[in-house]
Design the sequence.
């Protein structure tokens, strides 16, 4: 979905790597959000709106946490 979002943007290989890592973290966060929103409950309509509202407020923090967890100390 976002594969070419940063194409032709990076000026250096290091910048390209960082942008790609961020893209992967955001994609992972979106997959988690998608799974959360699509999980079934008895209150499907209101739960979906509630979940989407929460996801939009926290997607950046989730992507940050995923990226932090994947980074290695050099």
Sequence:
């Amino acid at each position: 979905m976002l594969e070419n979002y940063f194409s032709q943007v990076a000026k250096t290989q290091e910048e390209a790597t960082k942008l790609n890592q961020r893209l992967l973290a955001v994609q992972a966060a979106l997959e988690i959000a998608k799974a959360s929103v699509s999980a079934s409950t008895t209150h499907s309509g209101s739960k979906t709106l509630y979940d989407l509202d929460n996801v939009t407020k926290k997607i950046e923090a989730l992507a940050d946490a995923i990226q932090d967890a994947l980074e290695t100390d050099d």
